[in-house]
Automatic annotation (TrEMBL):
Annotated PANTHER family: MALONATE-SEMIALDEHYDE DEHYDROGENASE
Domain Aldehyde dehydrogenase: start-end pairs: 24-481
Keyword Oxidoreductase: yes
Protein name in the entry: methylmalonate-semialdehyde dehydrogenase (CoA acylating)
E.C. no: 1.2.1.27
A molecular function GO annotation: methylmalonate-semialdehyde dehydrogenase (acylating, NAD) activity
Biological process (GO), any one: thymine catabolic process
NCBIfam families: MMSDH
Enzyme class: oxidoreductase
Keywords: NAD, Oxidoreductase
InterPro entries for the chain: Ald_DH/histidinol_DH (IPR016161), Ald_DH_C (IPR016163), Ald_DH_CS_CYS (IPR016160), Ald_DH_N (IPR016162), Aldehyde_DH_dom (IPR015590), MeMal-semiAld_DH (IPR010061)
Amino acid sequence: MSTIRELGHFVDGKSVEGASGHFGQVYDPNTGAVQARVALADQAETEAAIASAQAAQPGWAAWNPQRRARVLLKFLQLIESERDELAKLLSSEHGKTLADAQGDIQRGLEVVEFAAGIPHLLKGEFTGSAGTGIDTHSLRQPLGVVAGISPFNFPAMVPLWQLAPSIACGNAFVLKPSERDPSVPLRIAELFLEAGLPPGVLNVVNGAHTAVNTLLADPRVAAVGFVGSTPVAEHVYQTASAGGKRAQCFGGAKNHMVIMPDADLDAAVEALLGAGYGSAGERCMAISVAVPVGKATGDALVAKLLERAKSLKVGHSFDESADYGPLIGPDALERVRGYIDVGVQEGAQLVLDGRGLSLAGHENGFFLGPCLFDHVTAQMRIYREEIFGPVLSVVRVDDYESALRLPSEHEFGNGVSIFTRSGDVARDFTDRVQVGMVGVNVAIPVPVSYHVFGGWKRSGFGDLGQHGPDSIRFNTKTKTVTSRWSEGGGAAARTGGPAASSFVIPTMQ
Ligand code: NAD
């Protein structure tokens, strides 16, 4: 008989059992079985984590930045020896393939590497002799306690994006990961402790809306980062902002790929397969809409896409030959299947229907074969709403301007890409499209860790993006110091001239 693991919290440098009496279920999406139960924190448990962070923060902030960076570097070393194991754990709870799980971890670690440059990143600005005898400089100081709320679909990457720059800046952190795949975030916290992070600087509270709402209501939390679906992102942003907290909240997406008549069609098709169906479409940067320009492009694209999509292998997430694995849970499977019904009712042409897929030996797993809709229109729900599954919609347009309008006018504005051989078209598209992250002949334009990641419109609430320079801005407040040390010293003292009065307001001319 298989035993069910119990997952609790990580507070004040220790693993803590849940005390609320409430639990969530963690599935093995490959089999459909419950493999663990996770404690859902109540208000008191969440407040204990905030208190621990608040107590630890001043001491941590007093460490010089280089010393703090060494903890991040040590963490990078420690995680290296158990990456394969961690990828397996991630894959077993999420259902993404081992290769995708490795990518999830890798993308997270790249932000830890970026944050390890904190001695350089925190340097303020300085102007000597801004006025007579006056210097001005700025300091970037930590905010205090920062909270991060993360989604199920990147259980390593998103927590690391949220927490690494934050603690590097001298904040203490409370992470509320997704209750659907909480094991990797817990292990990350343990590894940080092992790397020398003082207890309390990084706490992990598992839970659902009670934990989130406690973080939002608590005045000791200075800032909140959220990544998840748009309705919750909006709720978190509005509540946090109304409470005077700094907030950055990233939501859902509907990412388009425009395929111009001059595009390398084979490259575009291969890109669509990976970006549309990879990780079962459970990526915020997944391409869910293909926009071929012109009838000939549309016909050729759909023909090639159909042929290639049919050959995709859906399998157990540990099967190295599988292109993608199961969806995260029964609710996700039901929701995505529901959207396929909606698309059919709306009159879109379902040219590839993955609903019949059953994996021998894993009949209860949450698998769905690749689905392809042709002749989708901008009015349909399957176009307007995020499906978050292995479902690709083709919206055919007659010309470039119509293609440009689709992503620009969509309520989401996370990512977009264009496939073309024309530099002129690519440049115009990049310039005018109303979307936060743009790819040119690149399917998933996730920026490197030292550039900013962030969607526009209802894909992102708040002014600052994730990682890159924005993450330092988000996690610090600027203090500007104007100082004069010329009185009784400097040139006047050396020449025996009069000292400036300390009561005169300095002019900067
Ligand atoms: P979700 O919104 O259901 O959950 C995200 C987090 O919010 C979880 O920690 C969850 O426990 C919490 N939560 C859920 N409902 C809540 C409520 N009513 N009140 C308070 N907290 C609540 O999202 P998900 O299903 O875990 O993740 C998938 C979504 O995340 C997709 O929409 C995807 O596009 C989005 N996403 C966006 C980005 C981005 O950068 N824009 C990145 C990854 C995922």
